[in-house]
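Example (one chain per record):
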Amino acid sequence: RMWLNGTGWCRPSMRQELLNAIFPKVIDMNVAKKITVIGGSGFVGTNLCQALADRQIPFEIIDIKQSHRFPEKCKIGDVRDLQSLRTTITGDVVVNLAAVHRDDVQDKTEYVRTNVDGAENVAKVCSEKNIKKIVFTSSVAVYGFAEPGTGEAGAINPFNEYGKTKYQAEEKLR
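Predicted structure:
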């Protein structure tokens, strides 16, 4: 699930699908100067950034870990830290891929701090900086163990903290 700033939900799985979901539906590259990819050092983020690089679309990465593929584009930042976001976000479009998603997280409050509070922090900083386009990624985990073929209107029934907090973030951002 990916919320596209008032344009609806989609489930991207590969680079081209991700780009097709975002461009041109949300991001008009005739207007956008640079895309900020928060969580850009992870699997989806690296693939998105590679697709952006392939198309020569300017971007920056903000992540708690250095990007191995794009170290020159990466700034260390944390969605849990407002000041960190204030100093690192310089794009005019923000794609938020940051999340705690592993099932073995010991401190369960980390799910809320990153997935819910972090999403709110990103939205707050974007508002402060007058950034009008935010792409927030959620997860099919919000549906829990749904029947195959369940669509976007399917029942919300998360089975773990990750799914619960991704849905909580969706609700906060609506």
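Caption: Strands lie at 2-3, 9-10, 35-38, 59-63, 74-76, 93-96, 133-137.
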